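This part of the workshop introduces the protein records we will be handling. The question running through the whole workshop is how a given chain folds. To make this concrete, we reproduce a full record directly below:
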Amino acid sequence: MLEEKENNKTQIRVFIETFGCTFNKADSQIMAGNLLKNNIQLVDSIEKADVAIVNTCYVKQPTESKIINRIQNIKSEFPDKKVIVSGCMVEIDPKKLDKIGPDCSWIGPHKLNKTTDVVKSSFKGEIVRECGFSNDTKVGIPKLRFDYYIHIIQICEGCLGSCSYCCTRFARGMLNSYSIKEIKKEAKEAIADGCVEIQLTAQDTAAFGKDTNEKLSKLVEEIATIPGDFRVRVGMMHPKSIGNDLDDLIQAFKLLNVYKFLHLPIQSGSNKILHDMRRDHLVGEYKDIVKKFKDEIPELTIATDIIVGYPTETEEDFNKTSEFLKELKPGLIHLSKYKHREGALSSVLDEIPYDVMKRRSKYLTDIKSQITEDENKQLFGTVQKVLVVEKGNKGGYIAKTDSYIPVIVDDVDIGSFVDVEITETTGTYLRGKKV
């Protein structure tokens, strides 16, 4: 009994390490908020911690390998630390997780409200595994913002897709949208608290409201018209989910406080591969969406995702993807080499030879670099209004133009809007000076 009382007096120290997307980062902020609310101390390194939470991403095989190595390294280098695994791996691959960390506790992505309970139990040497699905909201609850000037809001969780290569949907479940009223309230509080960037994130932001009869365009409008000088970044949209909201979305993106930035993954330039991927949209439909946006907002940056080497991708299919990129010239291209994912439908197919995959990836990487270099050159000598968002890793500060293009600039304050002249362009970044 005396030992229990002593443990209650001990303040538990927790370190949270996050892998993956903006949505995962927001989950970590919720876990941190839950811990702070319950008087548990957060520390900035594993060396200072009693308990380490590893918030996992499982969307790509290289990330999976990195996470597995990290969990194993923590257990070998810090055997006195209690390890809790959270995030997508908990729901997608529990067998592998149990094998690499049989004494680890778990917090599934739908059980963040159990964070304090799991931490306390783990600290006492118990193994607790909270997993499974729920419709609990992730809006308007305690959060610890990791970046003072940037506030992430999860507008919905889950999706309506059935993409053959995806395992994330097994972790996040069916679509669960949160209310515009509650999202707007959280955004207003963040702006009043000094935030200058609101990031609206989801597995598919365009799916927002399809289960609640609300619309993404209305949400963006409501957030963007909150009084203040700030920017809204809208996260990834599935082309098939935009539907009849396209015209209203374009009008919402025209609002001053919205970044002119559209993240719209295509994944392949071949309709045959899109069919095999179960993407439920065609290349022509994608081009129509982009054209309508660009006709109304010429300065819009298009970001897209490409999966290289899907198992049924022939050389002809690959060439169609290459031509698609050369034609549309997206300002930002995320390339991924295909790898089987746990539970994904495409995992029963034979992967293409690695040397073919590598060659195709290199070819698209060269196209990507040339597109970015050409786009950046067009901005040389122009004056851009930028929002300074963070300190650079190699000196200076990183700012974003209204089209969400990063610019390195010196002698500025984080969180401020400044006018800069673009003085240097490369294939990867811009550099500017304050005017």
Observations:
- Confidence is low (pLDDT under 50) at residues 1-8.
- Residues 354-377 form the longest helix (24 residues).
- The first strand starts at residue 13 and ends at 18.
